[in-house]
C-alpha cells in the first residue's frame, strides 16, 4: 500500500504530513507495509529541503524533516500510489486535472481522515509560526485517522 501527500510547493504541508505520518506508522508497526512520499503541484522549490519554519515546528514534536527534498507531482505517481492525499481543494483539483484516464488511485482531501468533509490544511507559507503549528496539529489528527483506516483495510485483505 502506498500513500502520497500532495500540496502546492512540497516544502511546508506535505513534507510535514510525510514526517508525521511516518512516525505514526512506526508507532503502529506498519512502517514496512505502507510506503510514503510527498510532492508538490508546482516546480518552484524542486530539490529544496522543507521550509525552515516547517522543520522547526516538526522538530518541536520530535520529527526530523531535514532529509526530505521537494519534487513535483509526476504522471507515474497516479500508478505507483494507492492514495493521493491533497492538502487543499486547489491541490485536489490539480491532481484530478492531471489524472490519466486509467489511473485508479484514490484522491481525497487529507483532512477527510480527521473527520472533516471539506476542510483544507491552510497554506502557512505567507504567515507566521502559529500557521505552522496549526498545520502540524491538523496533520497529526488526520494521520491517526488514516493509519486506522489502512489498518482496517489491511486486516480485511488478510481475512
Ligand atoms: P506548501 O506551501 O504548499 O505547503 O509547500 C507553499 C510553499 C511555497 C509556495 C506556496 C505554498 N510558493 O508560492 O512558493
What does this molecule look like?
This protein is of the alpha/beta class. Strands 2-1-3-4 form a 4-stranded parallel sheet, sandwiched between helices. The longest helix is centred in the last third of the chain and has 30 residues, at 129-158. The mean pLDDT is 97. The chain has 5 helices and 4 strands. The chain is globular. The protein binds 4-nitrophenyl phosphate.
Kindly state the number of beta strands: 4
Global structural class: alpha/beta
H and E order: EHEHHEHEH
Q: What ions, cofactors and ligands are bound?
A: 4-nitrophenyl phosphate
Structure annotation, total helices? 5
Q: What is the helix content?
A: 40-55%
Strand content: 5-15%
Uncertain spans, ≥5 residues at pLDDT below 50?
Answer: none
The Cα radius of gyration reads 15 Å
Strand order, largest beta sheet: 2-1-3-4
What is the overall silhouette? globular
Task: State the distance separating the first and last CA atoms.
Answer: 17 Å
Query: Which sheet architecture does the biggest sheet show?
Result: 4 strands, parallel
Indicate the mean pLDDT.
97
Amino acid at each position: 500500500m502506498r500513500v502520497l501527500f500532495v500540496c502546492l510547493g512540497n516544502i511546508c504541508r506535505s513534507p510535514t504530513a510525510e514526517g508525521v505520518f511516518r512516525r505514526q506508522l512506526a508507532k503502529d508497526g506498519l512502517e514496512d507495509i505502507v510506503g510514503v512520499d510527498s510532492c508538490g503541484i508546482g516546480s518552484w522549490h524542486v530539490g529544496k529541503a522543507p521550509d525552515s519554519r516547517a522543520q522547526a515546528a516538526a522538530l518541536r514534536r520530535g520529527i526530523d524533516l531535514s532529509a526530505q527534498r521537494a519534487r513535483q507531482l509526476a504522471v507515474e505517481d497516479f500508478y505507483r500510489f494507492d492514495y493521493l492525499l491533497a492538502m487543499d481543494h486547489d491541490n485536489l483539483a490539480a491532481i484530478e486535472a492531471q489524472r490519466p484516464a486509467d489511473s485508479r488511485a484514490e484522491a481525497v482531501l487529507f483532512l477527510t481522515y480527521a473527520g472533516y468533509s471539506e476542510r483544507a490544511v491552510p497554506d502557512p507559507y505567507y504567515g507566521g509560526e502559529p500557521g505552522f503549528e496549526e498545520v502540524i496539529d491538523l496533520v497529526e489528527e488526520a494521520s491517526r485517522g488514516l493509519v486506522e483506516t489502512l489498518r482496517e483495510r489491511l486486516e480485511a485483505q488478510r481475512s
